[in-house]
Amino acid sequence: MFGVSEKVFTVYEKPEAAEPTERVQLLREGFSFWAFSFGGLWLLAQRQWLLLAGYAAVVVVLGALTAGLRLPEMSALLLQVWVQLMFGFHAYDLQGWLFQRRGYRLTGVVVAPDEIAAERRYYDVAT
Questions:
Q1: pLDDT in tens, 16-74
Q2: pLDDT per residue over 8-26, tens digit each?
Q3: 3-state secondary structure of 90
Q4: Is 105 strand, coil or helix?
Q5: Which residues contact 33 (CB under 8 A, 6 or more apart)?
Q6: Contact by Cβ (8 Å): 24, 13
Q7: 42 and 51 Cβ atoms separated by less than 8 Å
Q8: Segment (H or E) for 109
Q9: Most CB contacts within 10 A, which of 39, 65, 69, 111?
Q10: What does each C-alpha distance from 31 to 27, 28, 73, 126 come to in angstroms?
Q11: Burial degree of 17 (CB within 10 A; 0-12, 13-18, 19+)
């Protein structure tokens, strides 16, 4: 009961992938602390160029908006923290959206302690 915590992974599959290792992608669900904390750097590390461009646009527009409206510093800070918090909650959803744009299909959900166990469970059920 108080053992290893379980995590939820969504499985994206691209049947026509040339490499077997590229055929299935597992994506962890939930809050991403690293995306919340480092935003653009996290996207850069994930090589998510389209999302990085959108993130940069949101940050620039947010900065211009807070300066144009002459919001107090605390309000501007709270608005930035809110945007980062939303990004932390939706970072994996945005990655899933990019997978679907690249031709992957959402084929399942797996609950496991880590990604390796999730992949093993997925293949056990799929075969």
A1: 877 767 788 899 999 999 999 999 999 999 899 999 999 999 999 998 999 998 989 99
A2: 999 999 888 777 677 888 9
A3: helix
A4: strand
A5: 88
A6: yes
A7: no
A8: strand 105-112
A9: 39
A10: 12, 9, 27, 27
A11: middle
Strands 7-13 and 24-28: antiparallel
pTM: 0.79
Give the closest residue to 87 by CA, choosing from 55, 112, 117, 63.
55
Name the band, by pLDDT with cuts 50, 70 and 90, for residue 95. very high
Pairwise CA distance, residues 45 & 13, whole Å: 22
Measure the CA–CA gap between 67 and 108, rounded to whole angstroms: 45
